[in-house]
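User: Here's a structure from my thesis project, written as structure tokens. My advisor, Dr. K., wants to see whether a designed sequence matches the one we expressed. Can you design one independently, without my sequence as a hint?
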């Protein structure tokens, strides 16, 4: 196994052109786009779920002091 003593000479050699690590380039772009899509999708799903729960609570038309009446499904 070869050792590298001078990184500047190693990276400027003709054999090492481009990225130092494997998979550089389109794979990062794909992962970033996939991450953004998942992030936005998670926010949409969470927003819809919370809106549905809040609408269900609003249909019950509970008052601010109803919890004092020991309502079990508060």
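Assistant: Designed independently from the structure alone:
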């Amino acid at each position: 196994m070869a050792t590298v003593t001078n990184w500047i000479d190693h990276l400027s050699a003709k054999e090492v052109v481009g990225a130092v690590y494997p998979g550089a380039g389109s794979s990062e772009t794909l992962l970033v786009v996939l991450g953004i899509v998942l992030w936005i999708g998670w926010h949409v799903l969470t927003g819809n779920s919370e809106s549905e729960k809040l609408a269900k609570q609003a249909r019950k038309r509970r008052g601010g002091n109803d919890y004092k009446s020991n309502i079990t499904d508060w």
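When you compare it with your expressed construct, this may help: The chain has two helices and no strands.
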